Amino acid sequence: MENLGAVAILLALCLSAYAVLASVTGKLKNKPLLVLSAERAVYTIWLLLALASGLLVYALLNGDFRLSYVAAHSNRAMPVLYKFASWWGGMEGSLLLWAFLLSTYSAVVVFTNRRKLRTIMPYVTAILMGVQCFFLILIAFPESPFQVLAVGRGITEVPDGNGLNPLLQYWTMAIHPPMLYLGYVGFVVPFAFAMGSLIARQPGDAWIHTTRRWTIITWGFQTTGILLGAGWAYAVLGWGGYWGWDPVENASLLPWITATAFLHSVMMQEKKGMMKVWNMVLIAATFFLCIFGTFLTRSGIVGSVHAFAQSPIGKYFVAFLAVGIAATVYLILDRLDYLKSESQLESVLSRESSFLFNNLMLLASCFAVLWGTIFPVISEAVTGEKISVDAPFYNRVNVPIGLFLLLLTGVGPLIAWRRSSVESLKRAFLIPGVLALVTMAVLAVAGVRHFYALMSLGLCMFVTATVVTEFWKGARAIAARTGQNLAAAMIELTHRNTRRYGGYIVHMGIVFLFLGFTGHAFNKDSTNDVRVGDKFSIGRYELKVRDLLDGDNDNYSWRRARIDVFAGQSLAGTLEPEQRMYKASRQPTSEVAIRRRLNEDLYLNFAGVTNDGRNLAIIQAYVFPLVSWIWVGFVTMIAGTIICLIPPKVRMQYARTEVVGYVQKHAPVNP
Amino acid sequence: MNKYVKFGLLIALIIGTLVWLAVGGVNETKSYYKTVAELQQMGPDARTKRLRVAGDVEPGSIVRRGKEVEFMLAQQDRKIRVVYSGSDPLPDTFRDSAQAVADGKLGDDGVFRANRIQAKCASKYEAKPGQQAAPVYPPKS
């Protein structure tokens, strides 16, 4: 069986190399059948990788511990869901998942474009398959998921596996890696189209129109992946934070930042024909940061708490990145003539300028995060001393950047294209501005002295006011004309220009995220050594230890505290933080207990037992104000993303007149 | 004023502010990776710089006392006493024989005062399947 899997991967590798060659030769020599055969190869690769993945999952589910991968990442007592999730629990499996997802995306791209864009599709196929080839080399040779443990030579037969890392045995973690990978891998597609149109010297925005949906969907997956990771860190790692600026977290954030910049700056290209080179650079940067992220998490070059093993695949990645980046830079420089801007910036007070600053800030943030992440490597190369920077560095740079971006989120959509007069700015921003200042004044009077927190909350109010005004104005106009009620008019409005109003909803999601981040300024914590019956307090809560229990099952043994929570005089509930010891991996984990509310979370962690002879339970209690808004923001952002993907009603009405490409540019946006 | 000059000034202002913040951030939070041996050979410098020391947690040396946790960090034959007093809970992976990284400063008494501990569990990541390590499950209270 493992032979079948390994052969499938090898065959897929050969086919991917063939597809690259056939596709390019077919295009250059004008042989459509050769191009077609390359496309067939793409489908076949999908079948082969589906087979290989199926075999690996089958081995994981059935506990075939002859396989090194299965023995290292699965065990008998694990629930089926986690056995399945072991597919991406380790290096070899997750690379196989990468390859499988890429083959799926490639097959979909080739299928949906089988009769379109014939001039650039052969190159797109070639680029997709080139990347595919790289990942297949990794799983065919240095990191094969089908390696068999050679029983004998110093290795005993394995009766049971080590089990999936217990920290990963949590539901969001089971879906976090595939989400992140769907995002990572997805950016290969717009990148391939961008490069394809460059190679084919195809002027215009065809690649942007074709890949707009891809980019939005992929961005949605990436957002989901990152925030699920944050949610997991918050609920599982037991340190009460959701983001630690760890290299692995940064690796997932970097392409997200450039992708966000790309999503904004393509609007400049679509509407004004500007920033063409810039968009090429951004999509290429996003793609290479995705590869770099995989490299960072998988090679162990930068030490990380997520602690993936050191491995020899680092040099493969470095080679791939070097060749890829060199080729991309060459292509862009060589074809600069095709990327001339069609119009110019006119004024500092304009929509264009707000996009420009949005991009500048996002890129600055990306650069700061990248710099901090690889600082130990750079400093060791330059000064010989390994120096690392810490969370405060990232916060110091990124908090002001974030606040400025939040301001632009409110300003951008209301400011006019080309140039804006001071008069019209006053009209648009008077109410939101006043509301923001009032909010800040009220909070300052109420005793909030934290500067950034005040700014952030004020700006949250500012953006909310601008978004609400936009919906209100548009909906009122429709309601007045059609006689619908306001709610129906709002749905109608959104449906007419889903991209614009979906975008506003995503912006609201961002506001909620910032609200959640701001709560961090008001966190409280306390650590208590307690026995049954003891009382302690934090914030407005009184906590009383009712019970200390312990027990045991097949997968792990546990100790648990049952703690009654009193808010004011009344019993508000019982929280049960737990500490587990997983048997297969002999690793302890904390199962924190969280009382989630929109205003604040109460977070209890059973940290252990004192070993100074008194055997007291160590309970850490935290109050995290507003943190739930991060998850509210996440749901809002995803909802907005989905709305962006719904085809707009206006375009569908105009589609019959055969000017599909221009309707968006001249559609009545504020009827 | 010419619009390009305006843009240029604005961008320069923004980049300048950020660079200033970043440089300040680096200087404030940078910590030097040192081995235990290097740390013990360092002069008075060691008292002022933020340092990051890695090693293995000496089995049986972890003592929890209220908010503080004390343990010995060993690297080859050298050992150093570490006292952790941060507000974040210690990671689940922190226990006997784990590989730990402590961030903090060296005190005058030669005890390393850490405000952050990272740890990865040695047995999980280093033992190959098929080679069972000794059980390290702690006795239940």
Can you put this structure into words, describing what you see?
The complex is a heterodimer of chains A (671) and B (141). Chain A is globular and about 85 Å long. In chain A, helix 13 (351-383) packs antiparallel against helix 14 and helix 18 (498-518) runs antiparallel to helix 19. Chain A has helices at 2-28, 32-61, 68-73, 80-85, 91-112, 121-140, 171-186, 188-199, 206-236, 247-272, 276-299, 314-334, 351-383, 391-411, 422-445, 451-482, 486-496, 498-518, 628-645, 649-654, 660-666, and strands at 387-388, 524-530, 535-538, 541-552, 556-567, 570-575, 578-582, 587-591, 593-595, 600-609, 617-625. Among the domains of chain A are: 1-150 and 158-164, no CATH class; 521-628, Tick-borne Encephalitis virus Glycoprotein, domain 1 (Sandwich). Chain A is built from 21 helices and 11 strands. Chain A is of the alpha+beta class and 671 residues long. With 141 residues, chain B is of the alpha+beta class. Chain B has a domain at 31-125: OB fold (Dihydrolipoamide Acetyltransferase, E2P) (Beta Barrel). Chain B contains 4 helices and 7 strands, in the order H-E-H-H-E-E-E-E-E-E-H. Chain B has a 5-stranded mixed beta barrel with strand order 2-4-5-7-6. The radius of gyration of chain B is 21 Å and the shape is elongated. The N and C termini of chain B lie far apart (76 Å). Residues 122-141 of chain B have low confidence and may be disordered. Classes of the chains: A alpha+beta (671), B alpha+beta (141). The interface between A and B is large, with 77 and 57 residues.
